[in-house]
């Protein structure tokens, strides 16, 4: 709650159960928000896959906001020699699978299918592929999809 706003008991109780993201960074940036599309349905009505998917979109979008026009988001794999996936799409399969689509450093199409209990994502900034005019901002497209879904479009 911001400032000296007055809220009812019901509003206070609702605020306490809504998802909230809070981050503090060394550059002084603070993020303390309740993203609209993520809070339209209670968490109890979402599968673990959908809930993980929605939050990952917010992290990807936030990461992209920090990038310049020479870089775009990619995901680093942990363990093994799988390398890095340039994120071109993301999805989920209820109740517990999250999927990432993209291409590896050699341009080979790649898909990662991961159980939510094993989810461990490292976002990386990669130089854009110079054939493109602008960096691919997948986080904003994914967030737009969340908004459409929340509005019933």
Task: Tell me about this structure.
With 153 residues, the chain is an alpha+beta fold. Helices cover 29% and strands 29% of the residues. It has one domain. It contains 4 helices and 7 strands; from the N terminus they run αββααβββββα. Helix 3 crosses helix 4. 20% of the residues are buried. The model has no long low-confidence stretch (mean pLDDT 77).
Structure characteristics:
153 residues; alpha+beta; five-stranded antiparallel β-sheet; two-stranded antiparallel ribbon; 4 helices; 29% helix; globular
Number of strands: 7
Strand content: 25-35%
- Report the principal-axis shape: globular
Rg over C-alpha atoms, rounded to the nearest angstrom: 17 Å
As a percent range, the share of helical residues equals 25-40%
Provide mean pLDDT, rounded: 77
Give the oligomeric state of the chains in this entry, treating copies of one chain as homo and distinct chains as hetero.
Answer: single chain
Kindly name the structural category: alpha+beta
Distance between the termini: 30 Å
Draw up the topology in text.
Elements: H1 9-17, E1 21-24, E2 30-33, H2 36-39, H3 48-65, E3 71-76, E4 84-93, E5 97-103, E6 109-115, E7 122-127, H4 138-150
Antiparallel strand pairs: 1-2, 3-4, 3-7, 4-5, 5-6
Give a short synopsis of this structure.
By secondary structure, the protein is α+β, with helices and mostly antiparallel strands.
């Amino acid at each position: 709650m911001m400032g000296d706003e007055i809220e009812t008991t019901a509003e206070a109780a609702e605020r306490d159960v809504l998802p909230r993201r809070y981050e503090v960074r060394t550059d002084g940036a603070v993020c303390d928000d309740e993203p609209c599309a993520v809070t339209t349905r209670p968490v109890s009505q979402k599968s673990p896959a959908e809930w993980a998917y929605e939050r990952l979109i917010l992290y990807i979008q936030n990461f992209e906001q920090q990038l310049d026009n020479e870089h775009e988001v990619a995901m680093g794999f942990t363990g093994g020699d799988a390398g890095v996936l340039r994120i071109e799409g993301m999805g989920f399969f209820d109740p517990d699978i999250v999927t990432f689509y993209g291409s590896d450093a050699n341009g080979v199409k790649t898909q990662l299918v991961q159980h939510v209990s094993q989810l461990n994502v490292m976002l990386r900034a990669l130089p854009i592929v110079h054939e493109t005019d602008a960096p691919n901002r997948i986080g904003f497209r994914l967030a737009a999809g969340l908004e459409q879904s929340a509005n019933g479009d």
